[in-house]
């Protein structure tokens, strides 16, 4: 056999971006197919980037040219600042946290490098030679990331934190000695004895989970950056980069159970997919629904008190000792089971119930149509309703007695029962979707109707008193009231939509009053969210007059509609679309005049315009809203031919 010298084949066909990411590049095949001298590859075209081949030019030019073209390295200070930008999201850091230079999270090879590159791409393109310049990208970006953390607290935690408080979480209902602690601040997963010392591996895992949570919070809150910035810069690239980084972080924590990992997964599921993300890129990674299911599995793992033998085709986990539980009331008050697990479990139940209703999937943490009545959680919710009824008897009805504290107590208690309404609505959809017996369908619908009647009888009078006193209540209370009224009545509209899709108009008689009330309340809530505002104050460092090396803090005030900073914009989009159907139906049946029809549609369109415009779903909803003339839309409403008579008699 002849000796043959095998030379290494050098392929000069990949662009700079594909070569750096080590993925296949189809630029050469696209050039051949198009018959052109140059054509961008599919990856660069989808990401709206320049498809360049600078590395090929440098390779052919020889080593001397490559070395001469190498840019000088950045100073150590600037490299550290670029690495620490996302580390500065949380305003309050633990004093014992490791420094970024020695943190184990920075030893994850290519994953960490890609994070730094993406972060640098997200920075503004204006780079000043002086670090003290007002447009210095590192300093401004650090300030913006801290501002994102503030937005997260003032918007999401104001609403969701109230749902986890002692007047809404059924496990803590009425316990004044327990603070409304948020699960992000609780213990980090199931731990053994408190006397055990954390190993270096546990420390590395803890740092990684904490970093991923900060990245996810930034990606979640960056939607509000355009409406709270005065620089006029285009933030679309920054929003896309933070979303991509947060999705990569989901793969880092999805197999590391902890309550902070669970919160990160939930937050990413609520993070809107930004404009500029192609359908292919959206399908390449984990989706929001996958994150929700992974978080549910995480909750079950964290709450397990016994570690029995577990195995699958890829791994076998042996049994382990049981984790001790609190046995006395004194120990229960300070145990992580009360302060962390119960709040986290109620949060997971909230997400699980919402997903089963809005995504048409079965619940993972509780029973569905059959068996939910005997579950401890929903029994507690009914008990909380009775406790509220008893405690509210001593209140003097009247807006003069409605303080801010009492209003928040009413809103939180009503939010607890609202989740029961969502649960029953999801059960009804399950009965109709899975083809259960007619008796089960009717029974599930009666539960929905009765839950609405109980909400209307127990909470509606007090909520109306809150509305009368609204101008004297805090702006956070207004935001909570708006979210409650919209979400509680949205479930009724979704039930009506389910009945319409299934062509079961014979079921509408049981929801006649509820449907009219829901349409009126949702429309009024949208108008309330547009006409009432929230004021946000942001502190920005600026150079002192005449002193180039000293900086002073100046406050900038932003006033935005409540609807614009609601942490659940997808619920607003769903409300707008369902209300558009109802308005078209009434207009076709001459129940509203042309002027009223135009006014109502103008309110709905204005609601969509004030939502974060970086979201793909919001942009799609706006295009759908104004896609066809009114007469064409009305001609397509064939499914509503029988609906008006059944709804309004």
From TrEMBL:
The keyword rRNA-binding does not apply. PROSITE patterns: ZN2_CY6_FUNGAL_2. Keywords: Nucleus. InterPro entries: Zn2-C6_fun-type_DNA-bd_sf, Zn2Cys6_DnaBD. Residues 94-140, 185-205 are annotated as: Disordered. Residues 14-53 form the Zn(2)-C6 fungal-type domain. This is Zn(2)-C6 fungal-type domain-containing protein.
């Amino acid at each position: 056999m002849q000796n043959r010298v095998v030379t290494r084949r050098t392929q000069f066909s990949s662009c700079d971006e594909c070569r750096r990411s080590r993925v296949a590049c189809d630029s050469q095949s696209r050039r051949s197919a198009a018959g052109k001298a140059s054509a961008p590859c599919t990856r660069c075209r989808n990401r709206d980037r320049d498809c360049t081949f600078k590395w090929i030019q440098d390779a052919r030019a020889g080593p001397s040219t490559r070395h001469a073209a190498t840019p000088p390295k950045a100073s150590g200070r600037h490299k550290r600042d670029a690495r620490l930008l996302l580390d500065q999201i949380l305003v309050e850091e633990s004093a014992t946290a490791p420094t970024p230079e020695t943190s184990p999270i920075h030893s994850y090879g290519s994953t960490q490098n890609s994070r730094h590159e993406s972060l640098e791409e997200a920075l503004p393109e204006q780079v000043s030679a002086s670090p003290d310049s007002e447009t210095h990208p590192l300093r401004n970006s650090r300030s913006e990331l801290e501002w994102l953390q503030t937005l997260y607290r003032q918007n999401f935690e104001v609403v969701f934190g109230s749902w986890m408080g002692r007047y809404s979480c059924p496990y803590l209902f009425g316990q004044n000695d327990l603070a409304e602690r948020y699960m992000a601040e609780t213990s980090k997963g199931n731990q053994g004895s408190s006397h055990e010392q954390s190993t270096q591996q546990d420390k590395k895992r803890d740092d990684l989970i904490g970093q991923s949570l900060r990245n996810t919070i930034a990606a979640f809150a960056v939607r509000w950056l355009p409406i709270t910035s005065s620089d006029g810069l285009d933030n679309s690239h920054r929003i896309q980069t933070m979303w991509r980084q947060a999705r990569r972080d989901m793969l880092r924590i999805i197999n590391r159970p902890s309550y902070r990992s669970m919160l990160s997964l939930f937050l990413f599921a609520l993070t809107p997919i930004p404009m500029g993300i192609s359908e292919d890129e959206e399908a390449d990674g984990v989706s929001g629904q996958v994150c929700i299911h992974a978080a549910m599995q995480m909750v079950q793992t964290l709450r397990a008190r016994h570690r029995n033998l577990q195995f699958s085709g890829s791994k076998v986990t042996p049994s382990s000792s049981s984790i001790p539980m609190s046995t006395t009331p004194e120990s229960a008050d300070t145990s992580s089971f009360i302060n962390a697990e119960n709040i986290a479990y109620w949060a997971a139940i909230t997400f699980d119930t919402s997903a089963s209703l809005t995504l048409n999937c079965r619940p993972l943490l509780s029973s569905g149509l059959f068996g939910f009545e005997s579950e401890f959680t929903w029994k507690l919710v009914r008990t909380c309703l009775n406790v509220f009824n008893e405690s509210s008897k001593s209140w003097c009805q009247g807006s003069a007695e409605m303080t801010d504290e009492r209003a928040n107590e009413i809103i939180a208690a009503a939010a607890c029962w609202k989740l029961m309404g969502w649960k029953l609505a999801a059960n009804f959809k399950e009965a109709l979707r899975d083809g259960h017996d007619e008796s089960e369908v009717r029974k599930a619908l009666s539960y929905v109707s009765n839950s609405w009647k109980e909400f209307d009888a127990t909470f509606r009078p007090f909520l109306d008193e809150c509305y009368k006193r609204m101008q004297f209540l805090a702006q956070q209370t207004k935001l909570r009231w708006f979210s409650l009224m919209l979400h509680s009545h949205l479930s009724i509209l979704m039930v009506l939509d389910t009945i319409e899709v299934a062509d079961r108009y014979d079921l509408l008689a049981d929801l006649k009053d509820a449907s009219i009330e829901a349409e009126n309340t949702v429309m009024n809530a949208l108008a309330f969210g547009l006409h009432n505002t929230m004021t946000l104050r942001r502190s920005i460092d600026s150079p002192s007059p005449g002193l180039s090396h000293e900086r002073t803090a100046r406050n900038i005030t932003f006033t935005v509609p409540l609807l614009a900073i609601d942490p659940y914009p997808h619920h607003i989009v769903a409300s707008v679309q369902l209300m558009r159907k109802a308005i078209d139906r009434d207009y076709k049946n001459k129940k509203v005049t042309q002027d009223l029809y135009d006014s109502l549609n103008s309110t709905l369109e204005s609601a969509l315009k004030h939502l974060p415009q970086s979201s793909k779903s919001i942009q799609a909803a706006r295009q759908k809203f104004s896609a066809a003339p009114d007469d064409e839309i009305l001609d397509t409403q064939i499914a509503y031919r029988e609906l008006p008579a059944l709804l309004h008699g």
